[in-house]
Design a protein that fits this description.
CATH superfamily of the largest domain: Alkaline Phosphatase, subunit A
CATH class of the largest domain: Alpha Beta
CATH architecture of the largest domain: 3-Layer(aba) Sandwich
Number of helices: 20
Strand order of the largest sheet: 8-7-6-11-1-12-19-2-20
Number of domains: 2
Largest sheet: 9 strands, mixed
Helix content: 25-40%
Distance between the termini: 34 Å
Strand content: 5-15%
């Protein structure tokens, strides 16, 4: 199932406990089932602000979010504590416990500082999807992730006997949870299959082939996504006029899934991403993985780890905003799906043997139209035009040379070779660019490479988050921060995320495990990077190499 590494099988006692000073050496121990979970399930709901969990909690059923909130530890002040809050960075944080300046994933896409070309966070042309079409920029491997994950440490500590599997509607959601030695399966929008890549194996195991043969993705053709709750339940949501759909999209329920061709094809499979059926397919495949890999019933008697990233909420919020009826209804549907999944785990593994963590990779800004309706200063910024104007300004100011080479906002790259050739000081050009940007509408701050490298980026919360998000080798020469409620957008509808503000950083952090976790509502500040050290403590394994989070000891029994 998983690529094998020639690591020595270590006596687990070396990572499980330390001797008290002066005590006699104890004989080597092996992992036992008594004190450890049989299965750790890490759930990431893509694009879920914590405020939505709190706002809609009274409408949840008994077995999903409410079960986590009532039977687990719930942190209301938990954050993705880096300044560029996007999917790849957020997923990387969950099981590495590291920030971008260490783990190297600085965005979903970024500019290669050498070639000045855009690269994708999980692309690697050495590998292809198994049985599926693969473009050069498709996500196939964790090559660009510079550190290991909790799953990698678990497999190391158990001589690779633990199984680590991750499933997601997005390749980056699966790959960055699976780490270096786990196995990732991701949704293929051309076929609706879940598939892995040749980084992990040469061919799919029999259980995957059998699952694909049933084509469960086709059962939703012609099916409608209709409101789950009575009309009165949505009374507080934004009016549909404030959440206009993108061209060709929809912003009203019910919505029926089909394709323009009238056939079940790639158009239909792509449409499935925006709505609840993608998440249901993801959880269905996760169940198949549990049974196919016998997760939680490992014959070696060691813990297994399952990562599940539910991607559709992100697509819904991008299109309609977290204040919309569609987002509201979608989260209610995710709640019911989680309840069914937990019931399945009860029967299959026994929840007394399962440790569950739920978090998100980032939050979301409201749409500009909704924020404006609440008298907030909010707009979309056309990033391409802003960069074109910045390039012209620098050229005019410094003798006609082209000094702006590329950008993948919030990162901006300057041509230092040309700056040096022109006899200019790099810091002077950086500062000129920063001053120009700060004079533009919607820009709150700009940090430069010179400031980062000299340690001058400090003193504020935002400075701390941006410093963590900046990687010396991969990031740009300037990083630009919008004002609150402003965001870079290339269209006239929808919304996004990516800022260091609380609406983008504050995410749910829920941990449930009867034998290990004390239930309660915790107001202490916590970060998503705390998850990996906390799980490492419970599993008695070494934390991942880049982990900087703390053990959430207040939750431990």
């Amino acid at each position: 199932m998983t690529k094998k590494l020639s690591l020595p099988v270590l006596a687990i006692a070396t990572t499980c406990f330390a001797l008290h000073a002066g005590a006699a050496a104890a004989p080597a121990a092996t992992i036992t089932n008594a004190a450890q979970p049989k299965l750790v399930v890490v759930l990431v709901v893509d694009g879920l602000p914590n405020e939505q969990v709190q706002r809609y909690r009274d409408q949840f059923g008994e077995g999903g979010f409410r079960r986590l909130l009532d039977q687990g530890a719930s942190f209301s002040n938990a954050h993705q504590a880096h300044g560029v809050t996007v999917t790849a960075i957020g997923h990387s944080a969950v099981l590495t416990g590291a920030y971008p300046y260490v783990h190297g994933i600085i965005g979903n896409n970024w500019i290669d500082p050498v070639t000045k070309k855009s690269v994708y966070c999980t692309e690697d042309t050495n590998y292809t999807y198994i049985g599926e079409h693969t473009d050069p920029s498709d996500g196939t491997a964790p090559t660009k992730l510079r550190v290991d994950t909790l799953g990698d440490q678990l497999r190391y500590a158990t001589g690779e006997r633990s199984k680590v599997v991750a499933v997601s509607g997005k390749d980056r959601g699966a790959i960055l949870l699976a780490g270096k030695t786990g196995t990732a399966y991701m949704y293929m929008e051309q076929t609706g299959n879940f598939a892995s890549s040749t980084f992990y194996m040469k061919s799919h195991p029999a259980w995957v082939q059998a699952y694909q043969a049933t084509k469960p993705q086709d059962r939703y053709y012609g099916k409608a996504w209709a409101p789950l709750l009575p009309d009165a339940a949505y009374a507080g949501d934004a009016s549909e006029e404030l959440t206009p759909a993108k061209p060709g999209g929809h912003n009203r329920l019910p919505y029926t899934y089909y394709s323009e061709s009238g056939q079940i094809d790639s158009g239909y499979y792509n449409n499935l991403k925006t709505g609840p059926f993608l998440d249901q397919l993801t959880l269905d495949f996760a169940r198949a993985a549990i049974e196919g890999e016998n997760l939680g019933r490992n014959p070696a008697g060691v813990p297994d780890l399952l990562g599940v990233s539910l991607s559709a909420h992100d697509y819904v919020n991008h299109a309609f905003g977290p204040e919309s009826k569609l987002s509201h209804d979608h989260l209610q549907r995710v709640d019911r799906m989680l309840a069914q999944f937990f019931t399945y785990l009860d029967k299959r593994v026994g929840m007394d043997n399962v440790l569950v963590v739920l978090t998100a990779d980032h939050g979301f800004a409201n749409t500009a139209e909704f924020s404006q309706s609440r008298h907030l200063d909010a707009q979309r910024i056309k990033g391409d035009q802003l960069m074109k104007d910045l390039g012209q300004h620098l050229s005019d100011k410094f003798g006609g040379a082209k000094l702006l080479t590329a950008w993948s906002l919030p990162n901006i790259h300057l041509d230092y070779a040309q700056i040096d050739k022109s006899g200019l000081r790099r810091e002077d050009v950086e500062n000129a660019a920063a001053r120009y940007l700060l004079a533009q509408k919607g820009i709150a701050d700009v940090f430069t490479r010179t400031q980062f490298e000299s340690g001058a980026v400090q003193g504020t919360r935002i400075a701390t988050l941006m410093r963590r998000a900046w990687n010396r080798e991969a990031s740009g020469d300037l990083m630009v921060i919008t004002k609150p409620y402003w965001y870079f957008g290339y269209g006239d509808t929808g919304t996004t995320h990516g800022s260091p503000y609380a609406y983008d950083t504050n995410v749910p952090l829920l941990i449930m495990g009867k034998r290990w976790i004390k239930p309660g509502n915790y107001g202490q500040y916590a970060e998503v990077v705390d998850i990996a050290p906390t799980l490492a403590n419970i599993l008695r394994v070494r934390p991942p190499a880049g982990a900087e989070g703390r053990v959430l000891s207040e939750t431990l029994r």
